[in-house]
Each structure stands twice: as C-alpha cells, then as structure tokens.
Amino acid sequence: MKNFNSAELVHKKFNELQRLQNIISQSVLYTTSDKDAKITSVSKAFEILSGYKEEELIGKCHSIFRDPNTPDSFYKNMWETLEKNEKFEGELKNFSKNKEAFWIKIVIDPMFDDNGEKIGYASYRENITNTKKLEYISTHDTLTNIYNREFFDKSLESKIKTAQRYNQEFGLILLDIDYFKKINDTFGHNKGDEVLVKFSEILKSNIREDDILARWGGEEFVILLPHTSLKNAFLLAEKLRKIIEKKFDSTEQKITASFGVATYKQNETKKYFFEKADNALFKAKDNGRNCVVKG
Q1: Tens-digit pLDDT profile for residues 100-117
Q2: What residue ranges do the domains of the chain occupy?
Q3: Cα separations (Å) of 34 from 31, 39, 59, 135?
Q4: Which of 157, 168, 238, 293 has the fewest CB atoms nearer than 10 Å to its CB?
Q5: Catalytic one among 126, 135, 219, 268?
Q6: What is the pTM for the complete model shown?
Q7: Is 219 labeled as catalytic in the residue annotation?
Q8: What pLDDT sits at residue 1?
Q9: Domain 140-294, CATH homologous superfamily name and number
Q10: Does domain 6-128 sit in CATH 3.40.50.1010?
C-alpha cells in the first residue's frame, strides 16, 4: 500500500477539487458578478448557451443578453429583492451572441465576505426554452402569434372568478373584420392571411400591456380589458376602429371592422357576459358595419 506525504495529499485533493469544479462548470449555468452587477466569471455551460467566451463577458453587465420586450417591472422587482439581500427567482427571456432567443429560470443569490459585507451576486440558471416553446404553441394562434381561443377562454374564466371575489369591473371587446370573405374571394387566401397578421399587429400595438388579445376564430378577435368601465371600453374600441380604417386605407380592398363591447356585472355567467358583447357586435354589423355598439 502506497503512503502519501502531506504535499502529495494536498496536491491530490487540489486535483480532485479542480476536477469537480470543471464538472460543475461544464454542467451548471452560472455567472458571478460584483456589487455593480459587472460579470466576474461564467461557467463553461453558460458560455455554450450564450455563445460568448468568458473573456468577452468579464466586466460587462447581464443586459448584454437582455430581451428589450422584458417589462421594466421585472427588473424593478429583481433589484428591490436583491437590495434587501434576499434571493430572487424568476423566468427570463435572453438572447445569445448570434441573436437566438433562449428562456431561463434564474436564481440570484447575494454573496458576502467573511465580515458579512456584500461583494456581489451568484446567478444560477435552468434552460427552460423547450418548455416555453411548447407553452407558446399551446396558447398562441399559429398564423397571427397572438393568444388563441383556448387561452382566452381560460383567462376569461379566471377573470370572472377574480371579479366576483373582489367586486371588480372589467371589459370585453368582440370585433370582426368587415366583409372578410370578399377579401379571400377577390385576392386569395394568402392575401387574407396577410390582412389577418397586419390586423393583429395593429390591435396588439394599440392596447395596454395587461390587456389580453386573442383570435377567436376566422376573422373574429376578442380583447379582455382588466379594470375597465363600459365607457373606456367603448372609447378604446372606437380608437381601434379609426386606426384600422386609416391603416388599411391604402390597400386594394378598403378594410374596416365592427365592434361589440360589454363590461362584466356581478353574478353574470360567462355565457351571458360573452353574449352581451356578441349581441352588440351583431347590432354593429346590422347597423352597417364599421361602428361600435355597447352591450
């Protein structure tokens, strides 16, 4: 049996520690940063995911990966938590060096020295990109990339329960592209698809961040409006109607839309509430289209 002297034992333990550190670096997505949130180290696994080498990231901020569509409230909450020296957890969309999107579940821990002084932060991540892709497919319309009917239906049920519990008011807009069949018949279905995509983009860019827009089916769309009165739901619908009419004014086929609006009243069923907006939309069409009717 071979005897090891103390120097050999130290060397052996050092090599084993390095081996373990390499294994962790190659399998765990982590970074460390100083008090100013400047990156001080990254793991090999994170290098692969992000596409950046460690030397490219040292001294940089994590904003280098930032998705510009991430709401400021996410970062506000993150820093408020970390400034209280508490652990922060959240889900975040980032971009790699070659501009590919990836989703992570992130845990950030403040780091302290032996005297209890904060010296920086350690961030650990889980790659949840595939999970997010499946979630997106199940909740979004494949053509327009807005929410689908199933997601909206669940959101409406949830909103009604909340409204009943806290006596909240919220609005609903149901809208339909006027004479859409004529567009398909005259210009073809590809043109019809282009109109649906542009129509969705117009709606999405002119509603609030917490409003829920979905394609209900065909050329019909719905918008759920949290904390909204009937008056304000009507005003938004009228604003959207005018924008749509103006945006499509230069196309071969003039495109307009009809709107039905309603607000939820206590103890109404989902079926009755939705029918209020649906009946209002029917009246808008009956009134000549390109108008807004309250339910």
Answers
A1: 999 999 999 999 999 999
A2: 6-128, 140-294
A3: 10, 7, 9, 35
A4: 157
A5: 219
A6: 0.78
A7: yes
A8: 46
A9: Reverse transcriptase/Diguanylate cyclase domain (3.30.70.270)
A10: no
